[in-house]
Amino acid sequence: MNGAALDDLLGPVLGAAPGACAVVAGAVRGGEHLIRCRGTSARHVRGAEPEPAVPGTRFEIGSLTKTFTGLLLAEMVAAGQVGYDDPVNHYLPYRARRTGPDITLLHLATHTSGLPCLPPGLLRRAMPRMFTNPYATYTTADLLAAVPRARLRARPGTRVRYSNFGVGLLGHLLARAAGGGTRYEDLLDARVLIPLGLTGTDCDPYRPQATGYWHGRARPTWLIPGMAGAGALRSTARDMLRYLTALLDPATVPGPTLGAALADMRRPRAVVPGNEPRPLIWNLHRGDDHDLLHHSGVTRGFTAFAGFGPQTRVALVALTNTTASLRTTFVQAAYDALDALAAQQSRSAGQGART
After folding, report:
1. Which residues contact 246 (CB under 8 A, 6 or more apart)?
2. Angle, nearest 10°, between helix axes 65-78 and 164-178?
3. 105 to each of 87, 174, 250, 262, how far by Cα in Å?
4. Residue 98 burial by CB count (10 A; 0-12/13-18/19+): exposed, middle or buried?
5. Conformational region of residue 316, where left means phi above 0, alpha means psi within -120 to 50, and beta covers everything else
6. Model pLDDT for residues 74-129, shown as the tens digit of each residue
7. Beta strands, E only, the chain
8. Which of 254, 329, 355, 320 minimizes the C-alpha distance to 21?
């Protein structure tokens, strides 16, 4: 297996985003790393020459932010600042506390809280900006006001229901647990992004990034101030591969708490009948001989995918500056490439064991 084989696997991913002017995909296999880039960070416009897409081009990664929020939770658990089984009411101001069955931080991080996908009232407020910035005017105060009003769709811990609301709330609660008026963005920087050396990754919407497109039309920069932990991050293929490599090799990360947290992200934490075991945030697919952990993210102008195989020591990231649609195969192509990469490694390991 050589670099050319990695290149062959990434080729279909680069071609799976029609209408995108920038696609960057990267893969890790053991000690091999490869990033391939196609296109430019924006469409050509009169009087301006767009920059080529490179490994350091920043893309909005949408819900891939949630995996970082889960890692922040695991790091704060390892540091003894919070506990997985802590009820959310413990960290909420009195006016925002819920009645009824306890929802824990672990429920929020495994999508088993029973909370709806969106806070009550957000969809109605978002309608004027549905195709640009639906979360732009939704504040932390709005989020807290929605918590006691939300109707649970299932008893906590009994059903998997994907919830932007839940993970956005988790990010805010972790910031409250840190104290001192800390913002989620600053806490994530200090505890995760800077220690991992992810210099191109943050929640800043004003740093240079690729232009996002939806049906060929440029979209404004994504804003999600009230639920940053659910989807505010921007990142690069280079940073995302560094992040995934840390998940493959937690013991190589300096500091006991972050290394322990990275290892914790790989462990199933919740078991719900009819579903695969749930790690923190990541989706887990268990094959016959290897596991895959994966997640995707979409904003109004971008689509992102990341995944890794702990046993096969492979990882893949794919980023593009066009939003997903029902006909888009970008995420599926990226998952298929990751699966093929893991399967090749698994077969190679099996052949090695027989020789």
Report:
1. 196, 252, 253, 262
2. 40
3. 6, 9, 23, 17
4. middle
5. beta
6. 999 999 999 999 999 999 999 999 999 999 999 999 999 999 999 998 988 887 88
7. 22-29, 32-39, 59-60, 212-214, 217-219, 234-235, 283-286, 291-298, 303-309, 314-320
8. 320
User: 234-243, pLDDT tens digit by residue?
Assistant: 999 999 999 9
Spatial contact of 140 and 225, defined as CB atoms under 8 Å apart:
yes
Structure tokens at 41: 């960070």
- Residue 324, Ramachandran bin (φ over 0: left; ψ between -120 and 50: alpha; else beta): beta
Residue count of the chain:
355
The three-class DSSP label of residue 292 is strand
CATH (residue range 3-354): 3.40.710.10
Q: Residue 350 and residue 271: Cα distance in Å, rounded?
A: 30
Considering only the C-alpha atoms of the chain, give the largest distance between any 2 of them, rounded to a whole number of Å: 66
pTM, full prediction? 0.95
